[in-house]
Amino acid sequence: MSESAGSNPIKVIIVGAGLGGCAAALAMHYAGFEVTIFEKIRKFDRLGDSLGLGENALRLLARWGLHDQLIKIGNKSEDMQIRRWNDGTILAVQPLMDMAGYIGHRGDYHDAFLERVRECGMVINMGHKVVAFDEDKPSVTLEDGREFEADIVIGADGIKSQARELVLGFKDAPKSSGYACFRAYFKGEPLKSIPACAPLLEKDCVNIWIGHDMHLVQNTLRDGEEFNWILTHKDTADIKESWFQPGDMDEVRRLVVGWDPMIVAAVEKTERCLDWKICYRDPLPTWVSRSHKIALLGDSCHAHLPTSAQGASQATESGAVLAICLKLAGKGNVPLATRVYEKLRFDRVRQAQLNGEDVRDRWHTVLKTVDDGKDIDPDDVKIKNRWLYPFDAEADTYARWDEVSSIVRQELASGTITPLFDPKVGPARKLVRYDAFGRQIQHDFVHEPAVPAPTAVVG
Ligand SMILES: Cc1cc2nc3c(=O)[nH]c(=O)nc-3n(C[C@H](O)[C@H](O)[C@H](O)COP(=O)(O)OP(=O)(O)OC[C@H]3O[C@@H](n4cnc5c(N)ncnc54)[C@H](O)[C@@H]3O)c2cc1C
Q1: How far is the CA of 106 from the centre of ligand 1 (A)?
Q2: pLDDT at residue 236 tops 80
Q3: Cα angle for residues 260, 265, 266 (degrees, 5° grid)
Q4: Alpha carbon 256 to chain centroid distance?
Q5: Atom 2 of ligand 1, nearest CA residue
Q6: Among 46, 286, 363, 387, which is most exposed with the fewest C-beta within 10 angstroms?
Q7: Which parts of the chain span the membrane according to its record (predicted)?
């Protein structure tokens, strides 16, 4: 522990040991708190496929002793190529550190997070499903009836969060986004003998083919040993929010007819895939229960589109910010901490979510406006995430604490908490502009329409 825990540390219960829960555990541990983690899964498998970790997260994780392990896991490619769907022409080249950061297998990153949590002496209570919350004590109750109390409960329980229901007071059902991803992850070796796609296996690479209302992201991991492709396409079928639903390879093959032979060859050779319906959730009006003692974090309150490449990174930032808020507010002042936390986080998270929509929409439409063969401005297809990376979530919390905590103190005294998102007005939305290097140069605040386009999504 880097800072004194004192004789009466803040007691934190974290529900869920995904990447968000683990990051929060590390942040709380380094702030000197006593952390108890409950995870419903008995043993984690190597689930998911490629996931990006940006410098904004790595800066924080490094402070918690988790850096070199993660860099080793990440894809070693320096750039990604954005290509035209049918002939593979390169439309833009962008450094990976400008777009997704380090791309690694989610399961490998998760293992490294879990190991670091355990190295720090925290116990992850596996196979412990939380079935009920008491927001006033606050406490959680497990399936076997045992109840555990703390000063704060953090709901890092993912996209199907039960804690979110308690916080909102209603079930926040997912909506179809109109898109789905077919995803496949497999050993790269069999592709090496196919001349058309052999170049993709020579060394780690990241390629994105963009077409009309579709894009396909391909990358290798472990120096080409493993191969991943993710095809995002229009899908209006009934939604089932699942990470494990099998996909129909015949449909995938139909979708890529006429695409660049390099990626078609890889798709042809693929035996199976998953079908992820990408679901929307409107931004939440609050991330904190009425008692102010249960706070949401990660996908439970701010899931991202895959094209945001920031789901795990923003969850990590949220862990850091909540820990600093608790430290500054003190054990007897959890409501102040949680309400400052949500206010500090909302705008930035929202912009990271919207970035994912922005790039998806540009990729899906840009070629509609130009004739085949005509050059496009490479900037039109680049991911505009660079401005997210220099941010230091801990330093920002210290810098803005006085200003935001004084507003929150007044709100708590008057009993009127301003919602993060007022459905009658729409959430404040920052419009960010960029210079030629992708640097953020301007922020304008506007309000989204009263019935906003849904944006908080699985990713
Ligand atoms: C199976 C899976 C595969 C994924 N694959 C990818 C991917 O390939 N690429 C990508 O970018 N993102 C992927 N994601 C999403 C990504 O991991 C998250 O966006 C990010 O890591 C933040 O996650 P989180 O910790 O908030 O939520 P999650 O990773 O969903 O973790 C939530 C945890 O809470 C646990 N939990 C839920 N309810 C309870 C309860 N009642 N009691 C105790 N524990 C509970 C869950 O078992 C889970 O371990 C995946 C997520 C999952 C769950």
Answers
A1: 10
A2: no
A3: 105
A4: 28
A5: 48
A6: 46
A7: 12-33
Residue 221 lies inside a defined structural domain of this protein:
no
Q: Whose CA is nearest to atom 5 of ligand 1?
A: 48
| Strand spans (E) along 203-293 | 206-211, 214-221, 226-234, 274-281
Name the residue with the closest Cα to ligand 1, atom 24. 20
Q: Which residues contact 3 (CB under 8 A, 6 or more apart)?
A: 30, 31, 32, 327
Q: How far apart are CA 185 and CA 226, in angstroms?
A: 7
Q: Binning pLDDT at 50, 70 and 90, where does residue 46 land?
A: very high
Q: How far is the CA of 411 from the centre of ligand 1 (A)?
A: 33
Percent of the chain with pLDDT over 70: 88
Read off the pLDDT of each residue in 307-312 and give the average, rounded to a whole number.
Answer: 92
Residue 416 is assigned to a structural domain of this protein: yes
Closest by Cα among 28, 53, 5, 44 to 295: 28
Name the packing angle between helices 311-329 and 334-365 (round to 10°).
160
The pairs formed by 7-10 with CB atoms below 8 angstroms and a separation of 24 or more are 8/331, 9/33, 9/34, 9/331, 10/34, 10/151, 10/152, 10/326, 10/327, 10/331, 10/334
Q: Identify which of 19, 44, 124, 244 to mutate to test ligand 1's pocket (most ligand atoms within 8 A of the CB).
A: 19
Beta carbons of 278 and 180 less than 8 angstroms apart:
yes
Decide if 243 is inside a domain.
no
* Protein residue with least CA distance to atom 50, ligand 1: 48
Give CA 218 to chain center in angstroms.
19
Q: Residue 456 — very low, low, confident or very high, per pLDDT cuts 50/70/90? A: very low
Domain count, the chain: 1
Tell me the C-alpha to C-alpha distance, in Å, between residue 32 and each of 25, 26, 82, 121, 280.
11, 10, 45, 12, 36
Q: What is the pairing mode between strands 50-53 and 175-187? A: unpaired
Whether residue 428 is predicted with pLDDT greater than 70 in this model: the reply is no
CATH number of domain containing 122: 3.50.50.60
Tell whether 187 is covered by a domain.
no
Range of the domain at 306: 11-76+102-173+282-360+392-424
